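Problem: given the chain below (174 residues), write out its structure.
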Amino acid sequence: MSKHIAVLVTDMVEEIELTDPVKAYKEAGHTVDIISNEGNRTINGKNGDEIQADRGIDEVNANDYDALLVPGGFSPDLLRINPKNSEFAKAFLQGNKPVFSICHGPQFLVNTDLLKGRELTSFVSVRKDLENAGATVKDEEVVVGNLVTSRTPDDLSCIQPRIAKTFGKIICRS
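Solution.
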């Protein structure tokens, strides 16, 4: 069954944490919307790649999506500036919809105020922020709890099968 996946991102995203999962989702027949602060704009990746946003945060409703992906890089910190981004992500967590977050991505999720009691992982530099938000942080490639999280781009091959299991269809990269 095809899913509709929201990818919340802005400038300075770690490109591979966006492009690899999106490619896998699309190859598996899912629909993906890249959502940024403004729709129809070019997002400048951390390594110089340009990515086209499909929609702006003002144009979307979490009820229209089955899952959320928050890639890392510096994008998660920049997403925190606009409270509409946090409200969008909060709706997924409150609705028990899958949320996948890579590397620095969980740093953004702190702003939802919904990490208390959740198990997750992240890049080492944001782990203290997550602990201060009440999360139980583990140093593992992938942590599957209330969220599906991974530490770095090196863990992409590990998180993809977990995402696939959530959707009931293999969409991992090789």
